[in-house]
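Researcher: First entry.
Model:
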Amino acid sequence: MIGSGLKRTPLFGEHISSGAKMSPFGGWEMPISYEGIIAEYNQCRKSAAVFDTCHMGQFKITGDISNCGIENAVTQSVGTIPVGKSRYGFILNERGGVIDDEIIFRVSESELIMVVNAATFENDFSVLKSRLKPGRIENISSVFGKIDLQGPLSREILSDILGGEVSLKYFGFSFFDFLGEKTIISRTGYTGELGFEIFVRKEKSVEAWRKILSDKRVKPAGLGARDILRLEMGYSLYGNDLDEDTTPVEAGLEMFVCYDKDFVGREALIKEKKEGLKKKKIAFKTKTRRSPRRHYKILRGGNSIGEVTSGSFSPALSCGIGLGFVSPEFEDEKEIVISDGRVGMEAEIMDLPFYRDGSLKN
């Protein structure tokens, strides 16, 4: 039964009143779609869509950033993040596997905010607390919500709502007056389009959601559309394309690892690079409109060489697309077959992103 044992965001009532189709996601009851996944996908690609991301975990880290333990806890260089900027990275285990992927925001010289995934935030907090000096980290997930406004018109819409130009650069953020409060708004997102993430107090979530939707150029979108949007960009989804048995090197995300410092998992990554990878991420498109799905087999010459981790129909390419992992010796093979065990789909390995016409850097 939906709702049994599942958490709900402050916007649950708004979703129900809008006729959203709800489904479990990471321990939360979340909207999958409202008027339809493809319609919501097109809304985000062509105009602007608003997403409920209040389920995401948030931590506050304070004190001497260079001496609190955070550098050892994550893969990105934290000390070099300028105030008003954010940076993507990972929390790793000793084997180099990804406990979670996260974004760190440098609020001041002595304050950080870290945003983590909904399904993992409790374990993330426990791990980080064990790696940081006492009293340096606070779980603020129950204090703040987060709403994402994404799409090519998002800057224009947000500027109209706030009554002034929002000129943030990519991965930058600042404080804005919104609903009578100082509110962090960041130029980040998970869709491949120009977009913003708005951090509001939980008590202000409904008011903020309604305020954004009062602009007729915006419509709500659910996790179904967001999954297609992120997959067309080749963005990894934790639990599918990233997990504790997958390293950033295997996932093709080594660019978010700073080896110029010590961090948990560093030696394992160095050893892995020296001895060779056990698997390697690929991206592919099918020669059919059928959607590949997670756990479908990746075949070459009738032999299984790997498994699909994410898959969907791509409206932009009018075919199926997906991510998966294969044995390293097959990485240069372009022609593959995706199989559900009964039917095979011819496919071709290709470079990311799948979608290249977005407004992300506008």
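Researcher: Second entry.
Model:
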Amino acid sequence: MSAGFRFRDFVPEESSEKGFETLFKLFMQLVTITSGDVAEALSWLNELDKQYGLTDNDYGMGNFIDDLKKKGYIDENEQELGSFKITPKTEQGIRKSALEEIFGKLKKGNSGNHRTPQTGQGDELSTDIRDFRFGDSLDQISMTESIRNAQLNHGFGESGDDFMLAEGDLEVRETEHKTQTSTVLMIDISHSMILYGEDRITPAKKVAMALAELVKQKYPKDFLDVIVFGNDAWEIKVKDLPYLEVGPYHTNTVAGLELAMDLLRKRKTANKQIFMITDGKPTCLKEGNGYYKNSFGLDRKVVNKTLNLAAAARRLKIPITTFMIASDPYLQQFVEEFTQVNQGKAYFSGLKGLGHLIFEDYKKNRRKTL
């Protein structure tokens, strides 16, 4: 008699790849927080390893660093031997990670450009049928409807020899017009973004990276410019977002808005908008070779110039969506006044929901001509 089969619990072998993936997720978070400083990120990872035992005898931190180099995530810094810098592959990975973290719960939808309620030149067929007009392309002709019209209007015998298709029989299927959107994302890097022991700049960076990756993946024909503002305002590239740091700056919202509007004036798209992430009131203006600064309360000189720019943006049909990371009543009152002047939108949000709000508003604004 056969002894049959013996079954026991299956215990899979520990994989070094699993160890790498666990450490890599933490590393990507840490290198974002440290603004691309690989040494500091690895130092923090070592501390976490000591506290929580992330590595073992089979896969240690040395193995992880070697794998980072082999997989192309870090390179030796040529200017400083023995130190490392992140690669473009890591920069893209950080953006994708931010996209998954902030927009990970979004439902699947059609990829491509922005839909609009209008029909017109486009590459996606709609359900609307109309008569043929001079200038319509041949690939728009709906052959089924056109042949049916020919049969009804002229008839043809069984052999089909007397089939006739006239211009009046032709019908075309409309295509949906798709539009472009030009967006400027403004990020406040004033000192208040790290005051009181609260890190506000890291979540703001994640939102910016997620939005950039979203536009790149789903709306490649769109334009996205990113600027930062402190005492002054300047443009940065998307690849620079992981390295973004807060400076010893005041908040020159006027300079940020002026630069944003200058960038949008150069775009030929019908839809233009500004997203502004900030946690504080405007406190600074550029005057000649110096600055006018006042961090106490709402300085009317600074506020009035900011409101004037909000009105100018409205006249240019540029809505401004403000994401205020603060709960002070007098700051909310300023944002409400700013939003009313611009006829834009404002959200008073904690950082937890910031990414979702930005996406939702982006989705609404892009669907219509503003």
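Model: Note on the second entry: Confidence is low (pLDDT under 50) at residues 10-15, 106-125.
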